[in-house]
Amino acid sequence: MRPGESRGDAIVVADASGENPRELVSARGGWHTHWPAWSADGRFVYFSETTATWNGEPSEIFRVPAGGGEPQAVVRTTRRALFPLPSADGGLFYAANPAGVDLDLWWRASSEDEPQRLTTGVGEYAEPRVSADGRTLVATLIEYRQALVSVPVVFGGAVVLRRLTDEFGGDLEPSLSPRGGRMALSSSRSGRRNLWTAEPDGSNLRPLTSDAALEERPSLSPDAGQVAFVSDRGGQRGIWIVNSDGVASRRLVAAPVLDTLTWSPDGRQIAHAVPGGSVPQLSIVSVNDGAVRPLPTPAGGHSPAWSPRGDVVAYLEPRGPGRAYLKFVSSRGQPLYQGLPDGPPLTNGFVAWAPDGKRLVAVGVPGSSKATFWIVSPESSPPFRKLIELPEEVRPRGITWTSDGSALIFGRQETLSDLVLFERSTVN
């Protein structure tokens, strides 16, 4: 796999020496191709494809002829189907969560047969591998510890993190309005990933939605009266809106949203990112009627954040393998702050404005190194100041500012894992 961050990943085949590489699957803006695996007869390469950078929803399994050709769908879903492992007898092991939160291992004898779930219980089963004789399977069993954490925005001293919710509720992606009020978040504490609300200190948690759909990436409107979110209700991903009291939900538009949702200061529009040709693109949807228009940027973009105090949209511009940089445009696509230096690369990152509209937090989440938070003041010198680095086993999932701008709240995901072995009772 040749990584390209938000510009998309490619799948490449080469000689065992590394020479004579050729692309089997070309990169497409906003699409990630992970975990390539050969079929036993060498005729196909299987892989998973997703719009998320961390094997999130939606993820599906495809295969492509080793000699070249169009990819063919193998497992379709609005949830996750990952880590394909073709077997010698033509079957397929893989990991999926068709109805729940965690991945289990599945087995499908052929494309015509119904898949069989092989594992149950707490935790995610991932990355299966099978022995040469087909009798032993090894996999990773992952335990996620997910909680909301606050960090003060101070420089010159030790930065102390304070946990707001417990590590076992699956709390991620917090959102607060600049005007204060209750916080919206995504959580799996009910056994499904739905929307919840809480006080800014993490107390008094209450469910906002409770259906069987996957619901994530909440974003509170400027007046805190509505929550925009991404859902797969009805078997199709799109942007939905619900009142802050949990009533009157409606789908705004069907769209393969890549990452953050962000409201205009007047609450009439929502900006988001979608896959593009060679780079992801920004779009704006009207809250009133669902009309969509492109938000032009010089070189594509993702992870938009609309200033609460003016017509300024911050976003990340993909540029080369594994790099993205902070840029600014108006809602009509006019570049802003053009004299601002690129600053640090913000791989797999996201941004959020402070309530005063003068500062942002910009987060970089490289796949193989530490996530870093930067406080950016476009009109100050220096414009970029490092706030904190997280341990390598910790990944941030969503971030927001407190209403007074003194602290950040983010979703902290720590990953623990074990290796597990399974013995097959029979071999077909």
Explain what the structure shows:
There is one protein chain. This protein has 428 residues and is an all-beta fold. It has two domains: 5-130, Neuraminidase (6 Propeller); 148-415, Neuraminidase. The chain contains no helices and 35 strands. Strands 11, 12, 13, 34 and 35 form a five-stranded antiparallel sheet that branches. The chain has a four-stranded antiparallel sheet with strand order 3-4-5-6, with no helix packed on it. It has a four-stranded antiparallel sheet with strand order 7-8-9-10, with no helix packed on it. A hairpin with a 7-residue loop joins strand 9 (104-108) and strand 10 (116-117). The protein is globular, with a radius of gyration of 22 Å.
Topology:
Elements: E1 11-13, E2 22-25, E3 32-38, E4 44-50, E5 59-65, E6 72-75, E7 81-86, E8 92-96, E9 104-108, E10 116-117, E11 124-130, E12 136-152, E13 162-163, E14 172-177, E15 180-187, E16 194-198, E17 206-207, E18 215-220, E19 226-231, E20 238-243, E21 250-254, E22 262-263, E23 269-274, E24 281-286, E25 292-295, E26 302-306, E27 313-318, E28 324-329, E29 335-336, E30 350-353, E31 360-364, E32 372-376, E33 384-389, E34 394-401, E35 407-423
Antiparallel strand pairs: 1-2, 3-4, 4-5, 5-6, 7-8, 8-9, 9-10, 11-12, 12-13, 12-35, 14-15, 15-16, 16-17, 18-19, 19-20, 20-21, 22-23, 23-24, 24-25, 26-27, 27-28, 28-29, 30-31, 31-32, 32-33, 34-35
What's the short story on this structure?
This protein is mainly β. The chain is built from no helices and 35 strands.
